[in-house]
Specification:
heteropentamer, A alpha/beta, B mainly alpha, C alpha/beta, D alpha/beta, E mainly alpha, A: alpha/beta, 4-stranded parallel beta sheet, 11 strands, B: mainly alpha, two-stranded antiparallel ribbon, two-stranded antiparallel sheet, binds adenosine-5'-triphosphate, binds magnesium ion, amino-acid transport (chain C), ABC_transporter-like_ATP-bd (chain C)
């Protein structure tokens, strides 16, 4: 049968470039496992479109290694069965994945990735649990590190001080609980106490949480949830006269929120951390991308998913170029190439270092603030910086 | 009796006896061809299709169980996913080793995997038994929504009992070993075809499905099946006929939970890692859709419905590039995920509308439901 | 004149033929009885008139006219609006509703106003005092006979022009059955035509002016009730009047010789 | 089976529902092997009596014994297990199951196959099913339902459905058979035939039969003893002839005879 | 103590929104004995129409059109789908509504995309403070509206012929038809009313303190399930009480989660279900539901 074993690895093209899965003489196929119809639809859409934009630009510029890039996209709608199915489907035909939304699903296939498949996967999730694999590479600071940086921002601004209580409202699951680990670490270092409030993605009304935090007397709140929860939290806090700063992780904001009732409150005392500059920033990288993206997708708004997606695709592209240079476009070759990338992506505010699989590609965080006047709705209030407490923090013992 | 009376009635419907029933089934060679095809698939299909098939088999086992409960006894359950979770996690906990993963301590009993699989199924049954004060007393919509509570309780436990479930991280699933054969990704070459976990599990899944199907058929055609139907049709009369209603209701709940448990074990083996997100309400609803699409109260219906519901999205996504109407993700238009939901929603509505007995009726329109 | 004319009516339930070319007339102001054994098609006949065959997946051909107006193509509610009210077989009370609400449901199809409904209710309570006593009890908890009374009372609430009764005395004690008979007569005297399906042929034939006998879906006999009551066939099969020879016939035909031995296993 | 059937004793049974006494200290005894009729106006409490006897209702006070066994307070299926079978005044047949299946349900208490045995199709289960199906055929033939065995019970005419009910109860091989209006809704000829079946059951099986019936003709012909209820109280009892001429009975129930 | 009162009042206020949603379930159940899983999508439909129109025609007209629109969607579901299944098994019908829900939700979320839509209500984020406890004005409005609507329906079911028709049609369609009840009209009206109620509920579910209408809003509607069951699926009073109980339970469980942390955190969602299970153990038909009635 067709499945009968035939050795096809180690093939080389006329230029002596070794090729493997997902690479032909004229084409490099990359996979993207995204969510455009499920709970992370807004992220998935921006990331995917940005990556498609990158593919288009790259191909226009002649491709990589004389090959055109092709992106095979599968929308799993945040359904584990579909996600795993899509991974299984694409894996034999692609070189690697520029995107894999849903860290639980990435964890689910991680043993396959590390054990046999060995293709690079760049998940669009910033959980520390994903760090440590040679092939699954998180781009940017993980949630715990980001949270430590955010708390540092509050300490820095003298908004909180030793002995204070801070509230942490977080999602059940990977994202929230990883962020919580960060805030606990930061609190320990700075002599703070964390008041926990765990919520589920279906909770949209933060009234009870605000009541509880107010009662506990917290001086600031960290939110590691979705945009809606952040909007409700900030809105309710403002309306009930609970005037404390609120900081959120990069997933706790969407520019659409500015048009809601909470819009005004969000622009007052709410801060978001991320490992890239905001898309509306005047720096060259974001500005150019914003322009190109708006030209390509005039109907869609700009948000930070655009940068995240584009950045991830460029990292993959960079690895491909290096692999091409060393004449090895196999998965192994690309992985080796990625491990040599040390200082990439500074156009978007932060340089990433991929040489150590056990560490996130950066520990820096840009702190931003919602602002209705900038495209993408965010402006920088503190440029990329690492909190001392985040320097050496590792989640894994 | 006079001769005239013995004349068969003009419009005699299908007889109920198993013997004649057997005669009415499609010719044996059809079965034979089907079986041979099923047995050969691992030699030709790639992992994606095998895995999709395995998902469908697991779903079919679970759906058979749910059909015993909802179709045959009239007890609506929306908590099926909970018992799937008990099976899946039960297996992991029983078979897994204690240790730490990602900094979390994980408890495991390290039992032989085959024993763990059996115990996991029993554990799911026991979980169903714990629910029997409710399952024995409630029916209809009330039971349906009461069982929904199981989903929420289940998810809560899955996320919070870290040391057992691994929390949001889930747990790795130890590969099953049976008679010295391990169902893992280590390649075994059979007829020049490399057999990995999917290929090996394929046969395990087939065997489990066949056994589960035959067992359910036996139950339905036998004394318990009649008692269950009687409870569905007229609870008081069933009691007066000597059927202990609460005990049977609880009993079938346990049995259906065990089917779910078995499905859960198989799913876990296919997934190779348990993820708490999977065992949510949507999954329960999908199972309900399966049995309605396939045909309430029938084993074949459950299998057909399960195949339909579980394969449809995978197939649509797979062929999303070449299907009209459906556009590739990110290019605007209807995404394959959406298209498959439209189709699946419409299928639920349409099947019930045009085939009141479910898809199973298509095969054999005259056949009595069972 | 309000007349019901049924012509060449054939009805089938899937493959089962329940009625074949049945023609029946219910003249205005008269009581017409329909007799027949189990499965003869009596209920089917009434369903065809009230247009509720659809609920049983039955289909029919032929014509049914009420007051010259064809009933085919009407919805059940429109038939009710025309003044044709049926008391269904097997009581069919709304079990979870109170007795009072059942009666209110009966009045929904009535053409009279609030006053007429109040008067009808008074009348029903007079006929069946137990329905007044139990006004707030759930109908499903009534005894079988009480439910039958409720079903009858409910139909009377609608002030029908043509009343279709499907075994109104089923399960009623002799006294109550006699009361129902009187009531039917009284209603009829008030100008309502009645089509009466009854197993209790004695009562039916006494009340009715004409009668039809259905046998396996066909009209076997019809004529003035008095004449039918005198015929041997009707006497033996429906009136339970047994003379010597008939009893012997019956014994032979029915295989009374059959016995059942004790199960010993 | 048991050689000497036991008497069924109802002693001082009272049943109260919110604001209503459906049975008020009713006592009677059903002699073994006899046909005992319970008659009375509508709502007198006849079906309630049956519901108490079969365990569907719980008596507020009083007791029911079958021989020495106390039935009061037992669950319906336990009572069925002791050999008390009944039919229902308002049919209680599964609409889609065939007559044969409905009758097989009656065999429930006599058969053993559970989930495991049936699921695995153990030979014991198969054998059992075959034997009992045989007996079901026999009973169906006895009551004249052999032609309808494969029909869905729900599509049969009312009178036939009543027969199926009777057959299902007979299939339980009862010691006491409770018949709630077994011949209502039948023509005279069918009544006669059904009455013959009931008589045949008593004669050939020798079981006790308690029967609620409004057809006095049949009661007179079949019953060995009669209990008359009115408003939940026992107002008369004795042989059919005695009861028929009891003025209280005439006044409450029979009315002026035609 | 003020926390307790604040949480209690907060719970009552969100509870009245749940009560409104639950009322929609109850109306359909009373009229057709169907558990309507498509209710969440009706809610989405009503909210969506209001959200896209309010900019152009103002809030109140938009709300009116939204209510009418959801009523039309509800009627369409009845007319094109549910009507064809009359007489089917209850669980089959429930599952058909799941199919309908999938269709409607997919279409609506596709239209909404990833936006968070504002309904443009006039209350904004205004709050009132009573004795140190702050409450959103929107929630007070919700409480009043829920109370009003539930009273109206309670009376309508009990005293109008519409109510009698509806209950009769639900219980025994054939006999109801024999009473001259127009089954089609009755169930159509029930679905229309449920749609309208869903639109009202959508308004209160998406205004402050929640950020707005978006694809996940329909998930929040699921919380009305325990509310409807707990109160009794066929009871309007039950919808109100159930909604309030769920709201308060959820609010207290959330507010005191630190004290309850031995149960695992985040039990706010779970607590209503636990309360529901306990209630069902004691009263299998909910607090105010009609007990399963059966005599033979
Ligand atoms: N719903 C149904 N589906 C299939 N067949 C039916 C249905 N209802 C009635 N029949 C068949 O139609 C025929 C006539 O039945 P029908 O109920 O009209 O008889 P009937 O004269 O009213 O009998 P009874 O005196 O027992 O009430 C019977 O053979 C019966 O089996
Ligand atoms: N579960 C119940 N709840 C309330 N009342 C009941 C219940 N069961 C029976 N009753 C009442 O008890 C009385 C006796 O009912 P029962 O059914 O025993 O009468 P019956 O003698 O069988 O009458 P029929 O000849 O009309 O069948 C009736 O008035 C009935 O309404
Ligand atoms: Mg009839
Ligand atoms: Mg009775």
């Amino acid at each position: 049968s067709e499945k009968a074993k035939s050795s096809d690895d180690g093939a080389a093209d006329k230029n002596g470039v070794k090729t493997g899965e997902g690479v032909t003489d004229s084409k490099i196929t990359l996979g993207a496992l995204t969510d455009m119809t499920g709970v992370y639809a807004s992220l998935g859409k921006s990331v995917t479109q940005a990556q498609q934009l990158w593919v288009k630009e790259t191909n226009k510029a002649g491709g990589i290694c004389d090959r055109q890039i092709e992106l095979a996209v599968r929308d799993h709608g945040y359904d584990p069965q579909k996600a795993i199915g899509a991974y299984t489907e694409l894996e034999p035909d692609v070189l690697g994945f520029t995107q894999f939304i849903g860290s639980p699903f990435v964890s689910a296939v991680e043993s396959r990735i590390d054990g046999q498949d060995k293709g690079i996967v760049l998940p669009q999730a910033w959980s520390a649990n994903l760090v440590g694999s040679k092939y699954v590479r998180v781009i940017g600071a993980t949630y715990d590190v980001e949270t430590i940086n955010l708390i540092d921002f509050l300490l820095d601004g003298k908004r909180i001080a030793k002995g204070d209580k801070i509230g942490h409202v977080y999602f059940e699951g990977d994202y929230g609980e990883n962020a919580l680990a960060g805030s606990k670490h930061a609190a320990k270092e700075a002599g703070l106490t964390v008041v926990e409030q765990k919520i589920k993605p279906t909770d949209n009304d933060m009234t009870a949480q605000v009541s509880a935090l107010k009662q506990a007397g917290v001086k600031a709140v960290v939110i590691s949830a979705g945009p809606r929860q952040a909007a409700s939290l900030v809105g309710v806090a403002a309306a009930t006269g609970f005037k404390v700063p609120v900081v959120g992780n990069n997933s706790a904001y969407a520019p659409q929120l500015l048009a809601t009732q909470a819009g005004a409150a969000l622009q007052k005392d709410y801060y978001i951390g991320a490992s890239t500059l905001p898309i509306g920033d005047a720096a060259e990288g974001p500005a150019k991308l914003a322009e190109a993206y708006a030209a390509q997708y005039p109907k869609d708004g700009l948000d930070n998913g655009v940068i995240a997606g584009y950045n991830a695709a460029s990292v993959f592209g960079e690895a491909l170029k290096k692999a091409c240079a060393s004449k090895d476009l196999t998965r192994e070759g690309v992985d080796k190439a990625l491990l040599t990338i040390k200082d990439f992506g500074a156009d978007f505010g932060i340089a990433h270092d991929f040489t150590d699989p056990a560490a996130p590609s950066t520990r820096q965080t840009v702190v931003m603030k919602p602002d209705a006047k900038t495209p993408g709705g965010l402006k920088v209030v503190r440029p990329a910086e690492v909190a001392p407490a985040a320097e050496s923090f590792t989640l894994k013992p | 009796m006079s001769e005239a009376v013995k004349d068969a009635p003009a419009a005699a419907p299908a007889t109920a006896t198993p013997f004649t029933d057997r005669l009415r089934r499609p010719a044996p060679y059809l079965w034979l061809t089907g079986s041979v095809l099923l047995l050969l698939f691992p030699f030709y299909l790639d992992r994606f299709w095998l895995q999709a098939g395995l998902f469908a088999m697991a779903a079919a086992i679970g759906a058979i169980g749910l059909n015993l409960l909802t179709g045959s006894t009239g007890q609506l359950s929306m908590g099926h996913a909970f018992f799937l979770a008990v099976g899946a996690y039960g297996y992991c906990i029983l078979a897994g080793e204690s240790g730490t993963e990602n900094g979390h301590a994980l408890t495991g009993l390290g039992l032989p995997t085959w024993l763990a699989a059996v115990l996991a199924v029993l554990l799911a049954g026991a979980a169903g038994g714990l629910f029997s004060p409710i399952a024995g007393r409630l029916s209809g919509a009330y039971l349906g929504i009461a069982t929904l509570a199981l989903i929420f309780i289940g998810q809560h436990v899955l996320f919070n009992a870290d040391s057992l479930t691994g929390g949001f991280n889930g747990r790795p699933v130890p590969p099953l070993s049976l008679f010295g054969l391990t169902f893992d990704d280590a390649e075994v070459v059979v007829a020049a075809v490399p057999f990995q976990s999917s290929e090996k599990l394929w046969y395990l899944g087939l065997a489990a499905l066949l056994a589960g199907g035959l067992f359910a058929r036996g139950v339905l055609r036998g004394r318990p099946g009649r008692a269950l139907n009687a409870i569905r049709d007229h609870r008081i009369a069933a009691g007066v006929m000597g059927v202990p209603v609460a005990r049977y209701r609880a009993g079938v709940f346990v049995l259906s939970s065990m089917y779910a448990g078995l499905a859960g074990v198989l799913l876990a083996l296919v997934f190779q890692r348990t993820v708490p997100e999977y065992f949510g309400m949507i999954l329960s609803l999908e199972y309900l859709a399966m049995i309605v699409i396939g045909g309430l109260g029938s084993v074949a219906g459950a299998v057909i419905g399960a195949a339909f519901v579980s394969l449809l999205p995978q197939v649509l996504t797979h062929y999303s590039d070449s299907l009209p109407l459906v556009s590739a993700p990110g290019t605007g238009g209807i995404a394959p995920g959406e298209a498959s939901r439209y189709l699946y929603g419409a299928a639920v509505v349409a099947v019930v509308l045009f085939l009141p007995g479910g898809l199973a009726r298509l095969k054999n329109p005259g056949e009595k439901k069972k | 004149m309000a007349t019901l004319e049924i012509r060449e009516l054939s009805v089938g339930y899937g493959p089962v033929r329940a009625l074949r070319d049945v023609s029946v007339d219910v003249p205005a102001g008269a009581i017409t009885a329909v007799l027949g054994g189990n499965g003869a098609g009596k209920t089917t006949l009434l369903r065809a008139v009230s247009r509720t065959l659809g609920f049983h997946r039955g289909t029919g051909t032929g014509t049914i006219r009420f007051d010259g107006r064809p009933l085919e193509g009407l919805r059940p509610a429109q038939v009710v609006a025309a003044g044709v009210i049926q008391v269904p077989e097997g009581r069919q009370v709304f079990a979870r509703m109170t007795v009072a609400d059942n009666l209110r449901a009966g009045a929904l199809g009535a053409r009279g106003g609030r006053k007429a409904a109040a008067a009808a209710l008074r009348r029903v309570h007079e006929l069946f005092p137990v329905l007044a006593d139990r006004a707030h009890q759930r109908a499903g908890l009534l005894s079988g006979g009480e439910q039958q009374m409720l079903a009858m009372g409910r139909a009377l609430m609608a002030a029908p022009r043509l009343l279709l009764l499907d075994e109104p005395s089923l399960g009623l004690a002799p006294l109550m059955a006699a009361r129902i008979a009187e009531t039917v007569q009284e209603i009829n005297a008030g100008g309502t035509s009645v089509m009466l399906v009854e197993q209790n042929a004695a009562i039916a034939l006494r009340l009715a002016s004409t009668a039809y006998v259905l046998d396996v879906g066909e009209v076997a006999l019809d004529g003035p009730a008095g004449e039918l009551a005198a015929s041997d066939e009707v006497r033996r099969r429906y009136l339970g009047v047994v003379d010597e020879t008939a009893a012997e016939d019956a014994a032979r035909a029915e295989g009374v010789t059959r016995t059942l031995s004790r199960w010993s296993a | 089976m048991t050689a000497a059937p036991a008497p069924l004793t109802v002693r001082d049974v009272t049943v109260r529902f919110a604001g209503l006494t459906a049975l008020d200290a009713v006592s009677f005894t059903v002699e073994p092997g006899s046909v005992h009729a319970v008659i009375g106006p509508n709502g007198a409490g006849k079906s309630t009596t049956f519901n108490v006897l079969s365990g569907v209702y719980r008596a507020t006070s009083g007791s029911v014994h079958l021989g020495a066994t106390e039935l009061t307070g037992l669950a319906p299926h336990t009572i069925a297990g002791l050999g008390v079978a009944r039919t229902f005044q308002n049919l209680a047949l599964p609409p889609h199951a065939t007559v044969a299946e409905s009758l097989m349900l009656g065999r429930h208490r006599l058969t053993r196959a559970g989930f495991v045995a049936s699921g695995l199709r153990l030979p014991s289960a198969t054998r059992e099913a075959r034997r009992h199906l045989e007996r079901v055929r026999e009973i169906a033939e006895f009551i004249g339902l052999d032609k309808e065995l494969d029909f869905p019970a729900g599509a049969l005419p009312y009178g036939k459905q009543k027969l199926v009910e009777l057959g299902r109860a007979l299939c339980m091989e009862p010691e006491v058979l409770l018949l709630d209006e077994p011949i209502a809704g039948m023509t005279a000829e069918e009544r006669r035939r059904t009455a013959a079946v009931v008589a045949g059951v008593r004669d050939s099986l020798g079981i006790s039969i308690v029967m609620v019936e409004h057809d006095m003709g049949v009661v007179m012909r079949l019953a060995d003893a009669v209990t008359v209820l009115d408003f939940g109280r026992r107002i008369a009892g004795g042989t059919p002839a005695e009861v028929q001429n009891d003025p209280a009975v005439v006044q409450a129930y029979l009315g002026a005879q035609e | 103590m003020t926390t307790f009162i604040e949480l209690l009042l907060g719970g009552l206020s969100i509870g009245s929104v749940y009560a409104l949603i639950a009322l929609g379930f109850v109306v359909i159940f009373k009229a057709t004995e169907v558990v309507n899983f498509a209710h969440a999508s009706l809610l989405l439909a009503g909210g969506y129409v209001t959200a896209v129109l309010h900019d152009d025609i103002g809030f109140w007209p938009a709300l009116a059109v939204g209510i009418a629109g959801a009523a039309v969607v509800g009627s369409a579901v009845e007319f094109f789908v549910m009507r064809r299944y009359r007489g089917s098994d209850q669980s089959v019908l429930a599952i058909v509504t799941i199919g309908v829900d999938i269709l409607l939700t997919t279409e609506l979320t596709r239209r909404m995309g990833t936006d968070v839509l504002s309904l443009g209500d006039p209350w904004g984020d205004d709050v009132v403070t009573i004795g140190g406890v702050t409450l959103a004005e929107t929630r007070i409005a919700a409480f009043l509206v829920a109370g009003l609507l539930i009273t109206v329906f309670l009376l309508a079911f009990r005293f109008t012929s519409w109510g009698v028709s509806m209950r009769a049609a639900a219980e025994n369609p054939q006999t109801a038809a024999l009473m001259g009840i127009r089954l089609g009209r009755v169930s159509l009206s029930a679905w229309a009313v449920a749609g309208a109620l869903a639109a009202v509920a959508a308004l209160f579910l998406t205004v402050f303190p929640t950020p707005g209408l978006e694809r996940a809003t329909s998930l929040a509607a699921l919380k009305a399930f325990p509310a409807a069951i707990l109160g009794g699926l066929d009871s309007t009073t039950g919808a109100l009480v159930g909604g309030l109980v769920v709201g308060v339970t959820e609010s207290l469980a959330t507010g005191y989660q630190s004290d309850l942390s031995f149960l695992g955190r985040g039990i706010g969602d779970l607590a209503p279900y636990l309360v529901m299970v306990v209630v069902l153990l004691v009263r299998p038909a909910g607090l105010f539901g009609t007990k399963e009635l059966s005599r033979v």
